[in-house]
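Hello, quick one for you while I still have it in my head. No rush at all, and the record is pasted right below.
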Amino acid sequence: MSAPVFMSAEHIAIMRWRLDASVSVALACRDLDRPYALSFVLTDGPDDGDDVRWQMIFDPHRGVCIDVGDPPHADVTFVGEWPEVLDALHARRRGEDVILPLRPDGDLDVLERIAPARSTAQRIGAVETTLPEPRPTRIKENR
């Protein structure tokens, strides 16, 4: 069985199943005072340049839910460009120490509040994926 493609429907479904089934994730979220939402937007995506969007909801009663699309309200939105993020992920696979080129926007204090739950969710939900080769970034003309 081959690894799912990064951020494909199959990738999201596997992460969702792992997070839903995890007692550790539920316990890491139970002390949150309310649900918190993170949104991720990668522009210039692989499908004709459409954005790649997904969300993570950290809920004290439900644990962590991951899904495609945008949440009704995001406490923090991370924005990056698909080709740049894929370049960074490929570099990490080669053993390079690189930071993902994602720009956070919103209430950054939320990241500290959810840090233990986010760390647990990242550990539990991690899935080995196939990384597509990024296409060259298109030059955007100003008209």
In short: The longest helix spans residues 9-20.
